[in-house]
Write a structure and sequence with these properties.
Elements: E1 2-8, E2 11-17, E3 23-24, E4 30-31, E5 37-39, E6 46-50, H1 54-59, E7 69-73, E8 78-79, E9 83-87, E10 94-95, E11 98-104, E12 120-127, E13 130-131, H2 143-146, E14 152-160, E15 171-176, E16 179-185, H3 193-201, E17 211-213, E18 228-233, E19 237-245, H4 246-255
Parallel strand pairs: 6-17, 8-14, 9-19
Antiparallel strand pairs: 1-2, 1-5, 1-14, 2-3, 3-4, 6-7, 10-13, 11-12, 11-17, 12-14, 15-16, 15-18, 18-19
């Protein structure tokens, strides 16, 4: 089953997603995908991984890490399916990152790897945009690279964990303006989801709604205002986002 958060006529609803991406409200009304505003389906902390794909590390001529390179993304960065993300003025390189996201379903502390998937409620998709201009190096992704408002589309929904047979064997793809730009597989993760849950829960408690964004494969490219970026994880979801200029984005916010 797919679970989503949407806004309709000024109200926020938790809904199930049915055929054709239509959503069912509690009163029985069925709304089409384009009749609702899609919100991020989870709102907890996001633990994101750098250099977690062997092919991506090789693409950048980095030695694969021997310990997870984890950074935290704040909720202000999240935005939903079919929403916009802004490219800052006067930057040289902003790229997409298609990622599988594991959503935690119950408090997790000192979890063993063998039991780790029992703590996953489901899976979603994110596009972890990065502003490469401010990257000191891949081992130190500072806040200006990864924590700008509305620069992490998440969604459209959460797929129940039981409906994803093997999260370590899923295809990931990114299209820009309809052209396939990135293609990979979660089989190339250096640290898989059970390992990451064991690692993170060994020194902190993961809470329901927290997310683990598992990194991206090779194939990154610059995006500019006017681009439509679609990221897809096999069996999980297809997430659409559009790039606008800084001026347009903040003008829209003032109007809202």
């Amino acid at each position: 089953m797919k679970h989503a958060r949407i806004r309709h006529q000024g109200e926020t609803f938790n809904v199930s997603v049915e055929a054709g991406n239509a959503v069912r409200l509690a009163d029985g009304r069925l709304l089409a995908e384009d009749q609702v505003e899609w919100l991020p389906p989870a709102t907890g902390s996001m633990f994101a991984l750098g250099l977690n794909y062997a092919d991506h590390a090789a693409e950048l001529a980095f030695t694969p890490p021997t310990e997870p390179l984890v950074f935290i993304k704040a909720p202000n960065t999240y935005t939903g399916h079919n929403q916009v993300t802004w490219r800052p003025d006067n930057v040289a390189y902003m790229h997409y990152e298609c990622e599988l996201v594991a959503v935690i379903g119950k408090p997790a502390r000192n979890v063993k790897r063998a039991d780790a998937l029992d703590y996953v409620a489901g899976y979603t998709v994110c596009n972890d945009y990065a502003i490469r201009d401010y990257l000191e190096n891949y081992y130190r992704p500072n806040l200006r690279v990864k924590n700008r408002d509305c620069t992490t589309p998440v969604g459209p929904w959460i797929v129940d964990a039981g409906d994803v047979a093997d999260p370590s064997r899923l295809k990931l793809r990114t299209w820009v303006n309809g052209e396939l730009r990135q293609e990979g597989s979660t089989a190339d993760m250096i640290f898989d989801i059970p390992y990451l849950i064991e690692y993170l829960s060994s020194f902190m408690t993961l809470q329901p709604g927290d997310m683990i964004a598992t990194g991206t494969p090779e194939g990154l490219a610059d995006v500019v205002p006017g681009d439509e970026v679609v990221v897809e994880v096999e069996g999980v979801g297809r997430l659409v986002n559009r790039i606008v200029s800084e001026a347009e984005f903040f003008a829209r916010k003032q109007e809202a």
